[in-house]
UniProtKB/TrEMBL annotation:
Pfam family, one: LUD_dom
Gene3D superfamilies: NagB/RpiA/CoA transferase-like
Protein's UniProt name: LUD domain-containing protein
SUPFAM superfamilies listed in its UniProt record: NagB/RpiA/CoA transferase-like
Protein source organism: Fictibacillus terranigra
Domain of life: Bacteria
Domain LUD as annotated: residue spans: 8-116
Amino acid sequence: MIDLQHLPETLENTIADYGNESIVTWNDERFSDWGLNPLLKDTLPRQNIDVYEWDYTKGAENIRRAEKANIGITISEITLAESGTVVFFSDKDRCRTVSFLPKTFICLIPKSTLVPL
């Protein structure tokens, strides 16, 4: 379990482990709330890593970018630890496509989303 203070560093290392060519993320305020915007909007792009944030106004461009992304990053809404199941509440800014089109999927799991057995 990682606390929010170490989340940016841990995520950066995980991204590097899985090949950091290109990333697609949701447009989700929790990335900012958790201190990830400097990593996603500054640090990684300075390393020539393409970070694309889902933008519902761009239509099919979102799908194209998700298909080409090496890593998709989302946040679980409900997490069933026993089965490893994550549940998403999709909307215009949080499309499921981000979790299944990229080669690798990283899901951030808030402790508060864990459902007890």
